[in-house]
Amino acid sequence: MKKQVVATATLSLLALSVSGTSVFAEDSGNQNGTANTNKTNTTTDIILKPGSGGDVEPIVPDDTHDDNSGTGDVGSLSIPYASNITFGQQEIKQGDADYFALNKKPHVQVNDTRGGAKGWSLSVSISPFIGTENKHELKGAQLSLTNGKVTTKNNQSEAPTLAEGTDGTYTLNKDPQMIMLAKEGQGAGAFAAVFEGTDGNNEQVKLHVPRAGVEAQSYTAELTWMLSDAPA
Prior knowledge:
single chain; 232 residues; mainly beta; 4-stranded antiparallel beta sheet; 14 strands; disordered N terminus
């Protein structure tokens, strides 16, 4: 473009020497021959607030022997799902016995939509097993969880970790025991701790029952999951 403008100026000078008239090149842009360009900026915005927890879906939807693991817990930091664990109908043994859960994927899920990945910690305790007929305690019964893993779904956030159990085993009792930990910067979104094993005979979830004092009746105990907003 610059060479073309110079050639036009030369032709104008030749015309001036011959006829005495003046011819000028038309200025159609800036001095470089390019069109002038205007620029303006606009903005787009969104306001994000802590989630209500009302639309959280289960990460582990197919836990057998528990049709609905929903807890009803909602909020920006909540435990929306936790399995009801069953050992089914079992025979009394001659000596101490180990029974294994029927559930294939017992789990507990934490939802953190507070924003900012502030961290949290999850612990669990268990009440004594009490007979449904005479309210007698199943003395010495111990529930243990082994070889758990942390899982998520459609979530790229840094995952929490499982707390250190003895050889990967958590033997539950009346005192809260740490299960899953999220340091600051971890655990944003939904994560679950899963103790997966064989359907109908899950050796990762074991109930040890001493023979002494066992009676033929149903026994139930209550797991209490506690979620703290304090980083691990």
